[in-house]
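Methods — Computational structure assignment.
A single polypeptide chain was analysed. Its primary sequence is given first, followed by the predicted tertiary structure written as structure tokens.
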Amino acid sequence: MTEAIKAVRWRAGVMAAALVAGVGGYWIGQRGDDRASGATAADGRKVLYWYDPMVPQEKYDNPDSLSSMGMKTVPKYADGAGSAASPGVSVNPAAMQNLGIRVVAAEIGTLSSGFTTTGTVEFNQRDVAIVQARSGGFVNRVYSRAPGDVIRAGAPIADLLIPEWGGAQTEFLAVRKLGRPALTVAARQRLRLLGMSDGVIAQVERTGRAHGTVTIAAPIGGVIQTLDARRGVTLAQGQTLAEINGIGTVWLNAAVPEAQAGLVRVGQRATATLAAFSGETFGGRVIAILPTAQAESRTLTVRIELANRGGRLRPGMFAAIAFGGGGRAALLVPSEAVIRTGSRTIVMLAKKDGRYQPAEVRTGREGGGQTEILAGLATGEKVVASGQFLLDSEASLTGVPVRPLDGPK
């Protein structure tokens, strides 16, 4: 009986000790939880714990802790507000290199307005000569010509027999023999009115014989586009015998996208390269911007005039065209620093307090790896040029507000 009582008392003592230990542990733990959750920020808000937004499942009770990603932890407030009085995310300097974060300053620089496009070589439609019959007559002879032939200036095209010219020249010679200068001048003027050139009149005076047959020659060198002279054909006054297109200069019609049409102006210089002449460039200038756009390709036709020495540039040839442009001063950032979300364009702004905040910007031209900033940044402000997508993701997770375009600079 005594042993049984002792056993009961021993078991009761063990249970009491366990109860005391449990209550004490709960009290200590409760105090610890109260200590962790009772921290307050400088602005008086209650801190629940510290965490890394990239790995939100990790929670820390020390504001100086680093997460497994190497990021400095931020406080989680009981009211669910942002992580600090100054908006932004922070990165431990030791982790910046590992994350590949590179910061550059927005600076004033020169952005060239040059760009490249393609085009085709065409005839210069302003350099065209129409060969016509000055008087009615007959085609006696046609020289060996055909459309598409390249001829030089003064090359014969056809011999025409013009009876009216023969009679007028005979009268001129008769008047000239009279020795009356006034009548001779009047007779010579009549020959001009009939369409005779000074060369034909001089030949009549020199030989003293009428020449009813005249040779029609090419007034300019170039390509025969049309040829209507055929042997034995009767010609009316003013009828076209041939059309010749000069090839001393050619047109290069460039297809310029609408988005870049504002960068082109009349008189601007341009250079062209052609596959037929590898390593050689041809310089020209813009002489016209045609008033209509191509609906299918959404391009404007820009006409460039090129010198065609030796007639090497042939209509139909394909060319790559580079438009040069004078640079202008602009606020520039690396193009890789710009994040386009679809609804707006932002950059990650590196603030002076070591935090990073997204800032909305309005961009302009691009070129040479640089983007023009029209609004949203001030000269000297620093942006993240690499690693910004990681920071942007963290800012989105923590609810960091985006600085608007009209925000403080």
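Note: The longest strand covers residues 281-294.
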